[in-house]
Design a protein that fits this description.
single chain
Length: 440
């Protein structure tokens, strides 16, 4: 196997394992509450989890920004800058986490106003929220650490942390709920403990494997928060934040538009979206490899290695996409039947399932280019392409929904993914040609 492919797989495979374990934190909570004897428990945990998942997703720039900036500094062999990007990211992540704790009342009330749960569920959501909000600094700090590790070409540590987090969450939640009979408080406490254990474990592994490295790249206080460094950090992360807002708006609207068509269509869309999420968990592993390696070679001004990395990441990504499309064509209906035995939902999912056959191949460009753009910190291009694609999604949906119904929703989503990839391709080649002389 090509050495470049070995390097890609060395980063991608642990990233894939980490990505697959992420939804398990929420699934464990739902599975435990599903055995407490009332649907209200499941509803409360689902709403609470969605509030935190959406909030943390908006701050995903802490991971992506840390990854790109760190990998470029590593490529330049600037150990001091590598260390300072870590410290800057952690300080800012802790600050945002504390602000979320201080602003918990308006965040909670806004979420409850949007969701409008029944009073019994509302009280459970409040209980869950008031416990889990204390995990905000740990989660955002872990975002920064994971991004830094990936920037350092190391995806094994995030994998280990993710696995340990899930084990702790399962064991502690089971003990608190079924051993101490704590119900929602037990589920929330188990999640909170797992979040802080994951963050502290990541810190311990940081000093265990990079202590000498960090010491050799000591921070200079006068440079740590210099105007130029902070300006670069916030420009990159500002664009990534608003780019994430575009993605969140599309995903939330997709769910909302499904609910307009009744609970059966909403349930079918929810099940079919699991096919898309499964692809994203796997392909994101190669996107992580793209951001780590492309950032390193971009920072080292090695255009040949950079272009070679991008090419091979796309080769692996398209191989996965075609494989998933074949698997979905052959076994898609069986997978739906595994997820539900409700006849009306199965029939509805079967009507729309052929859109899922197309999504893996149509979405691969957006996934891999996201990784490359994060690596070279082309955050403005990421924002522009996501914004244009989101606008096209909403306009196309408004045009075709009346005549196409739910098929129009899936068509709009497919075009949204395609446009992101196409526009990123255009931006990439234009940016590469503009900067080619400076890289050689």
């Amino acid at each position: 196997m090509n050495p470049r492919d070995n390097q890609i797989l060395k980063i991608a495979i642990p990233s894939i394992v980490s990505n697959i374990t992420v939804p398990l934190l929420g699934l464990v909570d739902v599975a435990i509450t599903g055995h407490l004897g009332a649907a209200a428990y499941i509803a409360a945990i689902s709403i609470g989890s969605m509030v935190f998942n959406t909030t943390y997703w908006l701050f995903g720039f802490l991971r992506m920004g840390s990854s790109g900036l760190t990998s470029q500094a590593l490529g330049r062999r600037d150990l001091q800058e590598v260390t300072m990007w870590l410290v800057r990211g952690l300080v800012i992540a802790m600050g945002i986490g504390l602000l979320l704790i201080l602003a918990q009342w308006p965040i909670r009330e806004m979420a409850l106003w949007l969701m409008r749960p029944e009073e019994e569920v509302r009280q459970m959501v409040i209980t869950y929220f008031h416990i889990c909000i204390w995990g905000a600094p740990a989660m955002l700090g872990l975002y920064t650490l994971n991004g830094w590790f990936i920037g350092m070409q190391n995806s094994r540590i995030p994998m280990v942390v993710a696995i340990v987090q899930n084990i702790i969450n399962i064991l502690v939640s089971l003990f608190l709920v079924f051993g101490l009979h704590m119900k929602v408080e037990g589920v929330a406490s188990g999640t909170l403990i797992a979040q802080w254990v994951g963050f502290l474990l990541a810190l311990a592994l940081l000093f265990r494997f990079y202590g000498r490295h960090l010491k050799s790249g000591e921070c200079r206080v006068e440079k740590l928060f210099s105007k130029s460094a902070l300006r670069k950090f916030f420009i990159v992360n500002r664009d990534l934040f608003f780019r994430t807002v575009c993605l969140v708006s599309v995903m939330l609207f997709f769910t909302t538009a499904g609910s307009w068509q009744g609970e059966v269509t909403l349930a079918a869309n929810t099940l079919l979206m699991q096919f898309f999420l499964l692809v994203s968990y796997v392909v994101d592993g190669f996107a992580n490899a793209a951001e780590a390696m492309s950032g390193k070679y971009w920072g080292a001004r090695n255009l040949r290695a950079f272009a070679h990395t991008v090419k091979h990441c796309f080769m692996w990504g398209y191989a996965c996409a075609f494989l998933f499309s074949v698997i979905y064509i052959v076994g898609g209906d069986a997978f739906v039947a595994l997820l539900t035995d409700e006849p009306t939902v199965v029939d509805a999912a079967h009507e729309y399932i052929w859109w899922i056959y197309l999504i893996p191949v149509c979405s691969i460009g957006a996934f891999i280019w996201d990784g490359v753009f994060v690596g070279i910190t082309a955050s403005r291009e990421m924002l522009i392409t996501s914004l244009v694609a989101a606008v096209v999604f909403f306009l196309l949906f408004a045009w075709v929904y009346r005549s196409w119904g739910n098929h129009g929703l899936w068509l709009s989503f497919l075009v949204y993914l395609l446009i992101r990839g196409v526009l990123q391709t255009v931006f990439f080649h234009r940016s590469l040609m503009d900067k080619q002389d400076s890289l050689l």
